Each structure stands twice: as C-alpha cells, then as structure tokens.
Amino acid sequence: MASPAVVKVKPSTIDPIDVSLKELYVEDRWQEPFRRLRADAPIQYVPESNFGAYWSVSTAKPIIHIEALPKMFSSSYEYGGITLAFETDRLMPGEQRLPMFIAMDPPQHTEQRRTVAPSFGPSEVAAMKEEIRQRTGDLLDSLPVGKPFDWVQDLSIELTTGMLAKLFDFPWEERAKLTRWSDVGGDVELIRQPGGMDKRNAELGEMAMAFAQLWQERIPNPGKDLISVMAHSEAMNHMSEQEFIGNLILLIVGGNDTTRNSMSAYAYGLEQFPEERAKLEANPDLIPNAVQEIIRWQTPLAHMRRTVMEDNDLLGVEMKKGDKVALWYLSANRDEEVFDDADSIRVDRENARRHLAFGYGIHRCVGARVAEIQLVTLLEEMAKRRLRANVVGEPTRVPSCFVHGYSSMQVELSRY
Question: Scanning 164, 248, 292, 385, which has its CA 20 to 30 A from the CA of 370?
C-alpha cells in the first residue's frame, strides 16, 4: 500500500473530552461530544480516563492515515491490542494477553488472515445465500404480527448466532453459548470491575475447552468450517492456547456483535426516519445501499485502538512511543466533510459505502461480505412479506465505548 499523504490537523482548542465514558453510549448522548471534537479537536490528548491516557482521533482523514501506517501505529496484542481496555506497558492483575490476527502486525497478521480469508470470499459467501435466506424466512414466519417481542433477543441474536454455529459447525443445540462468549469477549468494561477479569478468564476457558474438542475432532475428519480450516493450515495449526482463544474471540465477536447490532439498528434507525423507511418499502432495489447506510449510521464497533511505535508528529501533534490512540469509527462515520446530513439515515445516500465501520487498510473486517449478505437478506425477506418493524419502546443499549449496540428492544411487526 502506498504511503498516505501527510495529514495535518489544527491543535485542540478545547479542554479534553473523554468519549470513552460508557454513560455516553448507554444513554445515547455521544453525538454532541464527538461533534465538538470534530470541529475543534479532531486529534486530542485525553490525559485521564477509566482506561488511562489516550489520543482521541475523531475525523476520517487522520483515521485513514493512521490505519495506512501499521508499522508506526501497531495493533499488536503485545502492546495492548485493539481496544482501550488494556494497558500498553504492563499486564493488569489476572490479565492474559490473547494473540489474534486482528491484534497482530505483519508478517504474522498477514499469514493468519490469509488462512481465514478464503472462507469469506465471494464464491463462499454466495454459496451461503440460500441457507441464510431459508433460516431468515423461517424465523420471520415464526414471529408474531401485532404483538410486541424483543427484536434483539428473538431476531438479531438468533440469526447471527445461527450463522456463527454454521461457520464453525458448532453443535446447534448449544449455540446460545456463542452469544454468551461473544458478550464476554467484547466487554471492555467487565475487566475493570471487581472480579471481572476472573469472570472473563473462566468464560473464555470454557470456550477454549469446547473448541479444543472440536479441533481434535476435525483433525482426522476435516470439513469446510473455520475450525477445520485453521486446524489444517500451516499458518495456524501450531497456535498456542492463548492464540487459539484469541482468534476464536475475534471470529465470534466479529461475526456476532457487529451484525446483530446492525440488524437491530435497521429496526431502530428506520423508526427514527419514517420517510426513509417508506422510501425503502416503495423501492426494494435500494436495499443493498440502505444496508451500507444503516451500518454507517450505527457503526457497531465504536473504536479501534492502536499503539504508537515511535515518537512522531506526522499528524501535527507530538505523539510518543507507547501512547494509546483511539480511532473513533463512530465519529468518522458522522464526519461532516465526508457525509452530508450525517446524523440522518438516507437510504439512497450516494456515498454510503465510504463508511469506516469495517475498518480500513490491512485490518479491514475479513467477514464484511458475510455481514452484508445477512443484512441484505433480512431486508429482502422483510420486504417480500411486506413486514415493518415498529419500535414500541426505547431500547436498552450496551454500556460500552467499544461494542456500540443494543441489549433489548421491544418491536411490533405490522404489514404495509
């Protein structure tokens, strides 16, 4: 990848704003703090937070610039990985640093990603389409019309967890465990709570045992599932236990939390913009673009973290080796310089695909196509049945600055 053009930003003109506070997300009031940062401090040093000091990067251009320089801005687990949660230079009590290819730098990242990527290629994803359609249609036909139910639990989680079970060839009757492990693996607040690290380690230990058994079963009898692919690849068949657990967390959280929260945003977001919902209902050809717009508007992972590997002032600010850098995709996807009227959903937005919700550069989400096909299929099957999701109560949101999503949301289906 060619080196990016140098990006300079104006110095911060406002006091530090800590946008890592979970209250901003559980109360859905993160929009205004980020708007202030984009206008007055697109790169700002925050000296104190629950996660320690960090640089906050809130606009698209510098985020893309940083993502294009993985040698200078590391993703490696050795320096704290991809969230603000972990320290750079020391282990927290009880912490196990878990390698995963999204939290690695080249060349190890390249080798492991290359192993997994073919499972999410165009032909492989296309082959999943009919089964995804069948499962989605069957689930929609089982849901009540005219009676409230929890869209998050009964639809979003059920569809995405079912997809994960298929990808791993995980025992279908035990698939609810995947949701629990995903929630723990993506919970950056848990490790700061008393006993939280012990709970995390216990859950992930249970996950490791379950998947280790599947690994042993797939060595002599491989299939096309992800466990078989990893077990029979030169890059991944000698992984340590920590590396195995780390990559499982990546694939489970990446395949579950992100898609399920976009599915929930489809119901919640279009409820906020009924004219756009009507436009989509009148023209189903807009569905693929609407999916990109919903992903942009929701941004199911609010940030990714990088660690500075050498002192630099490439961005017009003086970053020091070891500094944490939070790349706020959530804010970049509302960047006024990229998206007009960015707080609104516009299902026919011409540049919706310019969103950064899947990341950028070498770490762009390997499973993006699977997420997209699940979301497109859901909207298509809703349109086929002329179903509308009417939100009948304010949702309960995830209290986190990492996973940006919904814990529950009451919805009532109607026909249009």
Answer: 385
Residue 160 neighbours by CB under 8 Å, 6+ apart: 255, 256, 259, 260, 263, 374
Bridge-based pairing state of the strands 324-328 and 54-57: parallel
Six-digit token string for 18: 């800590």
Q: Where are the beta strands (DSSP E) in 279-384?
A: 303-308, 324-328
Q: What is the pTM of this model?
A: 0.91
Delineate the domains of the chain, giving CATH numbers in brackets: 22-415 (1.10.630.10)
List phi, psi (to 5°) of 373. Answer: -70, -35
pLDDT, one tens digit for every residue, the chain (416 residues): 444 455 667 667 799 999 999 999 999 999 999 999 999 999 999 999 999 999 999 999 999 999 999 999 999 988 989 999 888 877 777 777 777 777 788 888 888 888 777 878 888 888 889 999 999 999 999 999 999 999 999 999 999 999 999 989 999 999 999 999 888 888 889 888 888 888 988 988 898 889 889 989 999 999 988 889 888 888 777 777 777 777 777 788 777 778 999 999 999 999 999 999 999 999 999 999 999 999 999 999 999 999 999 999 978 899 999 999 999 999 999 999 999 999 999 999 999 999 999 999 998 988 899 899 999 999 999 999 999 999 999 999 999 999 999 999 999 999 99
Helix (H) or strand (E) holding 397: strand 396-397
